[in-house]
Amino acid sequence: MSKAEQKEMIVSTFVFGAYSIYIAPYIFFLKRAYPDYYPLIFYHGSLSKEERAALHLLEKKFDFTVIENYFSQHSFTQEQRQHAEAIRWMLWDEKFETAKGVYIGDIDLFIFSEQEDMLSAHIRHCCKLKLPYSNAVRTPTPFTPKITHRTFSNTVHSRGLNYALSLQKQNVLEAKRLTGLHFFIPSEYKNNYLQIRDKYLNIISDKNEFIWHRNGFGDEELLYDMMEECGWINDRVYNAQLKKQESSENEYFYRPHHGIHIGIFRNKKTIENNYSLFQTCEFVQHFKQFIQLETTDVLYKTLYHFFPEKLRQEISTLKKVVEPIYNKSKGKEYREG
Questions:
Q1: Could you report the per-residue pLDDT of 38-87, keeping only the tens digit for each?
Q2: Measured CA distances, 173 to 182, 213, 218, 234, 237 (Å)
Q3: How far apart are CA 252 and CA 134, in angstroms?
Q4: Distance between CA atoms of 89 and 203, rounded to whole angstroms?
Q5: Does 178 have pLDDT greater than 80?
Q6: Among 67, 151, 179, 337, which is most exposed with the fewest C-beta within 10 angstroms?
Q7: Whole-prediction pTM value?
């Protein structure tokens, strides 16, 4: 790879099913926020005619790669969706080798610029955690274990008979999960990660299920398992989420969206559950950037014509919900100014 081809920061993810409608807007907002960052998207299927047209429009302005039919030799039912989502933790490309950082997140995000850029912020967090990745452990979730022949057999094969028997005796377990927004420093991450990658690829390919995962399998549980096997679960990352509940000042917790999670606006329940998020200064600033692009950016206005009705509806709901909060914040800024 030539020096000209080296990327400072790669932003990547795996896209499954109907989520392909978010690929073009994801690339657009990322490149507007961080022109030097490189989007590298892996899609399980084939793009539609409209999606290809949208990407062709973006290619005239931006540098990015979308790989189609990735892992397409394996099919996934709706019940196996968590296995499909876990493929993002298996992504490795030669472009990763020389990048300073790789960020793997959700495709249904509109990313915006922030006071500290994503790369610098996550590298700083890695240093605080003393780990080659930046993430947070979710607060442990109690659940009733799924005990079937399949989960028991897979657990025995993975962790031994005694461990499987010990779990079988428990009525309630606690799920250990990292979040779905994962950054890593490739030079420090590569060796340990590649040693275990094939094992976890096989787990996904075989659609294995385990007693210690909620509902038999979870992509965030799998990421936790991987980092634990690499020796990368320490007290700092494990306690960060728990300590965040106890104190607003927690130097080890860092897990921002870096933008607007447009998927929140698919239904009333997720909107209600995240209403406090919409009140934060960070979200309001992201929404301000969105409004500015929507009203002034010619490329966005052209790209919007390729958006399907489902995505347009989510954007419309975003504005309907957040505009009153945004307008109220503008009034407050004016009075204080």
A1: 999 999 999 999 999 999 999 999 999 999 999 999 999 989 999 999 99
A2: 25, 9, 14, 21, 20
A3: 10
A4: 12
A5: yes
A6: 337
A7: 0.92
- Tens of pLDDT, residue by residue over 221-247, are 999 999 999 999 999 998 877 655 555
Amino acid at 209: E
Instruction: Please report, for residues 39, 57, 64, 233, 266, the alpha-carbon distance to residue 60 in angstroms, rounded to integers and kept in the order given.
Output: 15, 6, 11, 43, 31
Domain ranges of the chain: 7-137+177-268, 143-173
Measured on CA atoms in the order 218, 11, 251, 332, is the torsion positive or negative?
Answer: negative
Backbone dihedral angles phi then psi of residue 43, each to the nearest 5 degrees: -115, 135
- Give the C-alpha separation, 85 to 106, whole Å: 10
Output the six-digit token pair for 160: 């031994």
Could you give the angle at which helices 49-59 and 23-33 cross, rounded to 10 degrees? 20
Question: Candidates 3.90.550, 2.60.40, 2.60.120, 1.10.10; correct CATH number of 7-137+177-268?
Answer: 3.90.550
Q: What is the 3-state secondary structure (H, E, C) of the chain?
A: CCHHHCCCEEEEEEECHHHHHHHHHHHHHHHHHCCCCEEEEEECCCCCHHHHHHHHHHHCCCCCEEECCCCCCCCCCHHHHHHHHHHHHHCCCHHHHHCCEEEECCCCEEECCCCCCHHHHHHHHHHHHCCCEECCECCCEEECCCCCHHHHHHHHHHHCHHHHHHHHCCCCEEECCECCCEEECHHHHHHHHHHHHHHHHHHHHCCCCCCCCHHHCCHHHHHHHHHHHCCCCCHHHHHHHHHHHHCCCCCCCCCCCCEEEHHHHHCHHHHHHCHHHHCCHHHHHHHHHHHHHHHHCHHHHHHHCCCCHHHHHHHHHHHHHHHHHHHHHHHHHHHHC
Amino acid at the residue 139: T
How confident is the model over 122-143, as a mean pLDDT? 94
